[in-house]
Amino acid sequence: MNFNLTILGTGSAIPSFGRFSSAQVLHTHEKSFLIDCADGTQFQLRKYNVKTNRMNHWFISHLHGDHCFGLISVISTLGMLHHTGDIFVHAHPDLHPVLQAQLNYFCKDLPFQVHFEGFNPLKNTVIYEDRSLSVSTIPLVHSMPTCGFLFKEKEGQPHLNRELLDFYKVGIEDIKHLKEGADFTTEDGIVVPNSRFVTPPTPPKSYAYCSDTAYTERIVPIIEGVDVLFHESTFGESEAFRTKETLHSTAKQAATIAQLAQVKQLIIGHYSARYATLDHLLQEAQSVFPNTLLSYDGMKHEW
């Protein structure tokens, strides 16, 4: 099953040059997952025609405003749109009383319920799981407890050769045994090796979201080999000195992490408001990791 990513905001704390702050939606297996929710997310969802009817699990990386100020407005808008599925907000426990107070005041008659799922952002642990996918935290280094999220598809069933199944008239029970690794025995007692019927399952897909963070190689084992990594790239090398005081990353540092983790593709974003143009960030990242994409508001990416 394909992963479809829509990036709603690529700016950092101060929106500028047409860039909204952080929010993304990942769609896979007939479900949509909201990742961070900055102020203005409700406008971006509408602008880029993102379907919200199956967008029930929301993941908040940390409690800086440019990652969570949009929560109450999106919830309110969904209420007016008669959204019916319950919303599950996965975030640092401190968010619960803050958002609950807003819900009590502004959203008394929602057609759905909002549930809070607290987690410790400083630990690498699974915080969501269904039959197709798991989501785990990626502890990051920032000025407050912060984590990224690793979306990882579960391994599927092996593929079966339909022509051979028909040729040998393999029944339902025997198909089940073939999937479990057994050989097939014909009515004449001939044993047909499992390898003739079965090929390995499609490799599971994955996505790692890392924003905001200072450069840290501790995340490399967690994100190793992922298909797509989104890593914040707030600064260019000329402002690298600012990463120590702000605990953010440069585009080149993001590319170094991608290289060390041997990811397949890097997407950079969360740009400083000081940059009207971003070509230099892309060039700096590609000098280390060539397979880098420059994100932009409304960007859609599928793999």
Walkthrough of the structure:
The mean pLDDT is 95. This protein has helices at 41-47, 65-68, 71-80, 95-106, 162-167, 172-179, 194-197, 220-223, 242-246, 251-261, 279-286; strands spanning 4-9, 23-28, 31-37, 55-59, 87-91, 114-118, 126-129, 133-139, 147-153, 159-160, 184-185, 191-192, 198-199, 206-210, 228-232, 265-269, 292-294, 299-302. Helix content is 26%, strand content 27%. The chain is globular. A 7-stranded mixed beta sheet has the order 6-5-4-3-2-1-18. Strands 7-8-9-14-15-16-17 form a 7-stranded mixed beta sheet, with helices on one face. It is α/β, with parallel strands linked by helices. The chain has 11 helices and 18 strands. Strand 7 and strand 8 (133-139) form a beta hairpin.
What is the β-strand count?
18
Oligomer: single chain
Outline: globular
**Strand arrangement in the largest pleated sheet:** 6-5-4-3-2-1-18
Largest sheet: 7 strands, mixed
Order of helices and strands: EEEHEHHEHEEEEEHHEEHEEHEHHEHEE
**If you compute it from the alpha carbons, what radius of gyration comes out, rounded to the nearest whole angstrom?**
22 Å
Residues in helices, as a percent range: 25-40%
Question: In summary, what is this structure?
Answer:
The chain is 26% helix and 27% strand.
